[in-house]
Amino acid sequence: MKSIAIITARGGSKRIPRKNIRPFLGKPILEYSIAAALQTGLFEEVMVSTDDAEIAQIAQQAGAKVPFFRSEETANDFATTADVIAEVLTTYAQTGKEFQAACCIYPTTPFVTANILSTAMQLLEQEQADCVIPVVRFSFPPQRGVIINNNKITPKWPENMAKRSQDLEPLYHDCGQFYCLNVERFLQQKVIWMEHAVPIIQEERYVQDIDTLEDWALAEMKYKLLQVEKNLDS
């Protein structure tokens, strides 16, 4: 199965300026995603989709390809990940390069490893899935969520407040790390969450949203702890 890794790294981050190439424990965070993709040995092409010359240079130095830049339409704040992937696949097809599978990896996911990417790509083929999406279980039952109205707290679902946690159905959410896609079905449906989506469950310690500087500091601490654990096990 001919496959491509697409790492999405535009230059216009608002909350953390230059987020996609900000140093994470000593090297641009983008390099972690590139390294994980390259280490799998699965992808005929590991490319970075960007609109930024500096990001492109760092990506190429890390071993990724940047054969073209994003269009204005996919470089703005309103373009979706699906828009970016579709543009990449269509542009490659115009040059005669077509793929059966794609793995879209976000550039700020240092916890993603070659092993988890390989497992997800294997699942995509084994399950004949439209897509494979990493998910993590909510640490607190969302069914016990509350709303605030006129400075008063009200349970959203009162019927769940007296139930034991173990009696509530486990709920999961998208890790926001990567998506493995069947290209033909993606180009038909043009969405990430396709009809036949298969999960790959991640542990919470391997997941961290990075939207603020506080998130960034927490991610670095978690990463250091995981490296300590890894060294102790080896």
Question: What do these coordinates show?
Answer:
The strands form three sheets. Strands 1, 4, 5, 6, 9, 10 and 11 form a seven-stranded mixed β-sheet that branches. The protein has a two-stranded antiparallel ribbon with strand order 2-3. A two-stranded antiparallel sheet has the order 7-8. It is an alpha/beta fold. The two termini are 34 Å apart. It contains seven helices and eleven strands. The model has no long low-confidence stretch (mean pLDDT 95). Helix 1 (30-40) crosses helix 5.
| Structure annotation, total helices | 7
Q: Strand tally, please?
A: 11
Helix and strand succession?
EEEHEHHHEHEEEEEHEH
- Spatial extent as radius of gyration: 19 Å
User: Class by helix and strand content?
Assistant: alpha/beta
> What share of the residues does DSSP label as strand, in percent?
15-25%
Helix content: 25-40%
The parts where pLDDT drops under 50 for at least 5 residues are none
End-to-end CA span: 34 Å
Q: Look at the structure and give the mean pLDDT.
A: 95
Q: Can you tell me the overall shape?
A: globular
